[in-house]
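#lab-general

N.A. 3:47 PM
ok so I finally got the sequence cleaned up, no stray characters, all 169 residues accounted for. can someone with queue access submit it? mine expired

B.Y. 3:52 PM
send it over

N.A. 3:53 PM
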Amino acid sequence: MDEIVNKVANSPLITFNLEEYYDQSEVAEFDMKDHLFQGLILREKDFRLFIKECDWSTYQDKNVALFCSADAIVPTWAYMLVANKLAGIANHVHYGNATDMQQAIILDKLNDIDIESYRDKMIVVKGCSDLDVPIGAYVAITEKFTPVVKSIMFGEPCSTVPIYKKKRV
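B.Y. 4:20 PM
back already:
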C-alpha cells in the first residue's frame, strides 16, 4: 500500500495568523453624546465638572474606544481631556469605535514585524478565525508583505485564494 503523504504539512507555505495580533482586552466605549447639553452641544463648564468627578477607575486595564455617536460638533480639546484622564488607567485609548480601535492596535503590532524574515517566502494569510479581525488588518499585512514575499494567498493551506505572486525575472 502507498503511504499517505500530507502535502500541506510538507509544503513551504507559511501560515500567517492575524488573530495572534488581536488584543483581547476588555473594550469600553466612551460616547461623547452622553455629555452633550440637549444632545447638541458640549458645555465646557459642565464637561470639566464631569471630568473632575468621574470615577475613571471603571476603565482600568480596558481598551477605550472614544467617539461621538451624535451628529454634533465636539471640540477637539474635549477628546483630549478624556484621553488625558485615561492615560495610565486604560490599556489603550483610541478615537473611533471598537472596530477602529482593534484595527489600530493590530496595525501597531504589525509594524513591529521583521518583514525581512518573510523575504521570498510563500505566505498564506489565515482566513478563518474565531475573532473578528478587522479587514483593515488584512489590507495592511498584504501591503507589508507584497514587496518582499514570493506569494500571498488567503484562506487555509488546503484551500487558498491567490492574492499575489512575484513575477519571475
